[in-house]
From TrEMBL:
<feature type="compositionally biased region" description="Basic and acidic residues">
    <location>
        <begin position="176"/>
        <end position="193"/>
    </location>
</feature>
<protein>
    <recommendedName>
        <fullName>Glycosyltransferase family 25 protein</fullName>
    </recommendedName>
</protein>
<feature type="region of interest" description="Disordered">
    <location>
        <begin position="173"/>
        <end position="193"/>
    </location>
</feature>
<keyword id="KW-0472">Membrane</keyword>
<comment type="similarity">
    <text>Belongs to the glycosyltransferase 25 family.</text>
</comment>
<keyword id="KW-0808">Transferase</keyword>
<dbReference type="InterPro" id="IPR002654">
    <property type="entry name" value="Glyco_trans_25"/>
</dbReference>
<dbReference type="InterPro" id="IPR050757">
    <property type="entry name" value="Collagen_mod_GT25"/>
</dbReference>
<feature type="transmembrane region" description="Helical">
    <location>
        <begin position="6"/>
        <end position="28"/>
    </location>
</feature>
<keyword id="KW-0812">Transmembrane</keyword>
<keyword id="KW-1133">Transmembrane helix</keyword>
<keyword id="KW-0328">Glycosyltransferase</keyword>
<dbReference type="GO" id="GO:0016740">
    <property type="term" value="F:transferase activity"/>
</dbReference>
Length: 400
């Protein structure tokens, strides 16, 4: 056997081994799409930039944390199943049931939150502190009754495109922005829409440079668009048109927000803007700089109200706090799931009454992960859509 022949065999053996290693790395890379996303939801275009990272198991954030009271094993069972069936990797953080009032920041005793409110505040502060202690650059925070569409990766990809339009400077610059009302609007300026399909800025990490945003308020119980009279918040809106995951207007429940979204924009439109008048904290992205600001303002500086109202004051720059860059989205991407059962079990913070909920639902989420548990477990693809196009709103869903 010639030396030349042996060299060829050695070259082929090494080449095959290298190819196998590359394929194995791609298969288990956190930025590669999972089999669930390829088969159950459909193909996606990974592109050549960091938007591909939104399809990893933490939606482009470094971590996903879920707040769960150890006693609520029902919530933990459902959350673990929801995460597994949509290929998300989550870490649990224990909820808090007891807070020593001696540990409250200035103003805490005057606010007089009940035990549920204090526990909620402390749990969110514990997560902010964890990001700081572990130097976690970004995280998605969910409460344990949160629900989402099975197409959440695609939704977050569009949100990432939208967030860049609002927080990133124009390509090749460091201080020029797409939004003419940045950093604050003049009295005669009006909101301007930017289309994620046509408008572009610079393209860093998936959601924008980590020091350019503090909070992405992705799950809430209502919000509204900012106006020029709302002090120093930019007015620009990044618009996601023809989004099939958005219900038609008759199905969209604004809760504590207003109806400008459904009155102004065509059906199947989702809009990203600066957060204004948001309520509830069931889902939000936070950066490391945002966590530092949040922990200082809400746990060291002063307590001025319930957790979501203090988040609001940080985003508004009210109550003596400097304004932070907070974005939100309408309709929201994460929402409370309401299962069949007594409403008294819905929350450990708020009182929902003693009535019995006859039909499970999640507001504004078309292909709810939790409503589709059986379909996903059985490997079926005829998913349940609670808000079908062309149908009237169901008066029996208990939207209260």
């Amino acid at each position: 056997m010639s030396v030349h022949y042996l060299n060829i065999r050695l070259f082929l053996t090494i080449s095959v081994a290298l190819l196998g290693a590359i394929l194995l790395f791609w298969r288990f890379s956190p930025t590669s799409p999972s089999p669930f996303h390829r088969s159950a939801i459909g193909p996606f275009s990974s592109g050549g930039d960091s938007l591909q990272h939104v399809f990893n198991q933490t939606l482009g954030f470094q971590k996903i944390f879920v707040i769960n009271l150890p006693s609520r094993t029902d919530h933990r069972d459902s959350m673990s199943l929801a995460a597994a069936l949509t290929d998300l990797r989550i870490d649990y953080v224990d909820g808090v049931t007891g807070v020593d009032k001696i540990s409250l920041p200035p103003g805490g005793k005057e606010v007089k939150l009940d035990s549920g409110g204090l526990g909620n505040w402390r749990a969110h502060m514990n997560i902010a502190r964890m990001l700081i202690e572990q130097n976690i650059t970004s995280a998605l925070i969910l409460e344990d009754d949160a629900d989402w569409d099975i197409r959440i990766n695609h939704q977050m990809r569009d949100f990432a495109k939208a967030s860049r339009l609002l927080v990133q400077p124009l390509s090749g610059t460091s201080d020029r922005f797409l939004d003419p009302t940045h950093p604050q609007p003049k009295e005669d300026q009006r909101p301007q829409d930017f289309d994620i399909r046509k408008d572009f800025t610079s393209e860093p990490s998936p959601y924008g440079d980590i020091d350019r945003w503090g909070l992405f308020w992705l799950g809430h119980c209502g919000t509204r668009f900012p106006r020029a009279s709302d002090r120093n918040v930019p007015l620009g809106r990044a618009v996601i048109y023809d989004d099939e995951t958005v219900p038609e207007p008759q199905h969209v429940m604004m809760q504590f927000g207003d109806s400008e979204l459904i009155q102004t924009y065509p059906a199947h439109t989702r809009v990203v803007s600066r957060a204004w008048m948001n309520t509830c904290t069931m889902g939000y992205g936070i950066s490391l700089p945002g966590a530092r600001r949040l922990l200082y303002e809400l746990s060291v500086n002063k307590m001025t109200g319930p957790t979501d109202m203090m988040f609001r004051s940080v985003c508004h720059g009210s109550e003596g706090r400097p304004v932070q860059t907070c974005l939100t989205v309408q309709p929201q991407l994460f929402q409370h799931h309401r299962p069949v059962g007594y409403k008294s079990s819905f929350s450990d913070i708020s009182d929902h009454g003693a009535d019995y909920n006859e039909q499970a639902f999640t507001r504004n989420v078309r292909r709810s992960t939790r409503l589709n548990f059986r379909k996903l477990v059985d490997g079926l693809t005829d998913y349940i859509d609670l808000f079908k196009d062309g149908e009237g709103a169901d008066p029996n869903l208990g939207f209260k």
